[in-house]
Design goal:
This protein is α/β, with parallel strands linked by helices. The chain folds into two domains: 118 residues, Four Helix Bundle (Hemerythrin (Met), subunit A) (Up-down Bundle), CATH 1.20.120; 220 residues, Rossmann fold (3-Layer(aba) Sandwich), CATH 3.40.50. It is 40% helix and 18% strand. The chain has twelve helices and 16 strands. A seven-stranded mixed sheet has the order 6-5-4-7-10-15-16. Strand 12 and strand 13 form a beta hairpin. The longest helix has 41 residues. It is globular. It binds 5-S-methyl-1-O-phosphono-5-thio-D-ribulose (MRU).
Length: 364
């Protein structure tokens, strides 16, 4: 049953998170999930920037791929001169600060497009954006294979594996099978008894997206309140914690959705290994350590107001506090490298301080 050498059946998300649609893109609007799965067509760079800022598309790798298409849309709509290119790169680059995949994708687009004559930029932009999306899908599959070996090892010893995760780092966050969830899907397909503890991830509740994904895939899972994680880890009800990442500094310090650090601390106290799963586009070797990672502060109304579905089946908002209740909403935190057992990448699993060895070309 635990045959990690068996080739993966191709992972097919039930719906595309992102696809080209003529000179536009179609995204799955994640602000309506898990209640409604609606596609939204984005036809201008302004609409793409809005979709990223408002988290209609979200998750570090998916944000990067979407921004790349945003550049292609700008060049198709407004002409391919330097001014249009500069404006598109600036508008998209200003949408969200923490996930480095956004800057990585824009830099890759610029590297390819800048040297070209304006007349040949348009097609090249679509080709490069497609390549970024395709590479991300392949990268997710490889992360899945490497993480599978880890989960299979645990399951061989004890017959099953209980994974805790935070936020959403599944197919909704990428163009493929996901990062943290890719090993889970790979294990499930191989018949390994894998169960996932899913923390709801206040305030934007991305854990509910994870719950929705896992339910669709038939992977056994349990939703928990964020604050229950420490208890479950201390009680020995978790074998391994795996989260995604939004930026990994040169020393291995890792930014991820706020609440990740508390899980890493509780995991260390309980003796449970804490892993991060991430592609090369999340590595930022130019950033020496976690103190240099910009942390996004989002609108405090994300705490004051909850979204849900009313009895009439409509998405509804419910105010939890008076509108002027003092609130702060840092959206990410940084887990120090010393709390991380390993980083699961598409090239293998490395200790956080040893990523340079796996990615020498990025370390230069
Ligand atoms: C696969 S991206 C890393 C995730 O774990 C995560 O932090 C994330 O989904 C990013 O958050 P979001 O703010 O929803 O874009």
């Amino acid at each position: 049953m635990h045959d990690t050498a068996r080739p993966d059946p191709p992972f097919r998300p039930p719906v595309a998170t992102l696809r080209r649609d003529g000179d536009a893109i179609a995204i799955l609007d994640q602000t309506l999930l898990p209640f409604r799965g609606e596609t939204r067509r984005l036809e201008s760079v302004g609409e793409v920037a809005e979709a990223i800022r408002m988290m209609r598309v979200r998750g570090a790798p998916l944000i990067g791929a979407t921004a790349a298409y945003g550049v292609a849309i700008a060049l198709a709509a407004d002409g391919s001169g330097n001014e249009v290119l500069d404006r598109a790169l600036a508008a998209l680059g200003a949408t969200r600060p923490t996930a480095v995949n956004l800057q990585w994708a824009l830099a890759r687009m610029e590297r390819v497009l800048r040297p070209l004559a304006p007349g040949s930029r348009r097609d090249a932009a679509w080709r490069e954006a497609d390549a970024i999306a395709d590479d991300d899908a392949a990268t997710c599959a490889a992360i899945g294979r490497h993480g599978l070996a880890l989960l299979a090892g645990i399951a061989r010893r004890q017959g099953r594996v209980r994974v805790m995760t935070h936020c959403n780092a599944g197919w909704l966050a990428t163009c493929g099978a996901g990062t943290a969830l890719a090993p889970v899907y790979a294990a499930h397909v191989q018949g390994i008894a894998v169960e996932v503890l899913v923390s709801e991830t206040r305030p934007r509740n991305q854990g509910l997206l994870t719950e929705w994904e896992l339910r669709q895939a038939g992977v056994p899972h349990t939703l928990i309140a964020d604050n229950a994680a420490g208890l479950l880890l201390a009680r020995g009800e978790v074998d391994v914690v795996i989260t995604g990442a939004d930026r990994i500094a040169a020393n291995g310090d890792t930014a991820n959705k706020v609440g990740t650090l508390l899980k890493a601390l509780a995991a260390r106290e309980a003796g449970v290994p804490f892993y991060v799963a991430a592609p090369h586009s999340t590595l930022d070797f130019a950033c020496a350590d976690g103190t240099r990672i910009p942390i996004e502060d989002r609108d405090a109304d994300e705490l004051r107001v909850v979204r849900g579905i009313g009895n009439d089946g409509r998405v509804a908002e419910l105010r939890l506090t008076p509108h002027d209740a003092a609130a702060a909403n840092p959206a990410f935190d940084v887990t120090p490298a010393r709390l991380i057992a390993g980083i699961i990448t598409e090239r293998g699993i490395a200790a956080p301080g040893e990523l340079h060895g796996l990615y020498p070309e990025q370390a230069r």
